Amino acid sequence: GPRQPPWEQKRFPIADREGTLRIVVSFEGTKASIPIPQDVRVYSSVLLLGQHLIHELGSGRGAWLHVVQGKVLVRDHELRAGDGAAFENEPALSLTAQNPAEIMLFDLA
Predict the structure, then answer these.
(1) 40 phi and psi, to 5 degrees?
(2) How far apart are CA 94 and CA 34, in angstroms?
(3) What is the phi/psi pair of residue 30, to 5°?
(4) 102 Ramachandran zone, left/alpha/beta (phi>0; psi -120 to 50)
(5) Is it the case that residue 74 has pLDDT exceeding 60?
(6) C-alpha separations of 63 from 11, 12, 32, 100, 106 in Å
(7) pLDDT band at residue 91, thresholds of 50, 70 and 90?
(8) DSSP string across 1-30
(9) How many CA atoms lie within 13 Å of 8's alpha carbon, on the beta-carbon side?
(10) Partners of 54 in the beta sheet?
(11) Which residues contact 25 (CB under 8 A, 6 or more apart)?
């Protein structure tokens, strides 16, 4: 059958992702994440209503935020399930869950 991307094959318990950015895919394969041959780190997070996350971006790095489910507020923009947003030349990404939500964050060179 079709090959699944490696992160599909590894399940990360919700408890490990609740209220925090859990690294699930990385260039280095750190913290039991899945190593991939690109300079990207993928984080997954499950948030409760009102939970707030800040992710600092290193110099020269950008981010892509994907909302898997729920609603989050980023700056003054509301992002819903299926929405994505790109961030460049910003020191940090800050978001707040508007209702229970799941997000994926791609930290890219």
Answers:
(1) -140, 145
(2) 25
(3) -75, 155
(4) beta
(5) yes
(6) 23, 21, 21, 22, 5
(7) very high
(8) -PPPPGGGSS---HHHHBTS-EEEEESS-G
(9) 4
(10) 94
(11) 6, 7, 33, 34, 35, 36, 40, 41, 42
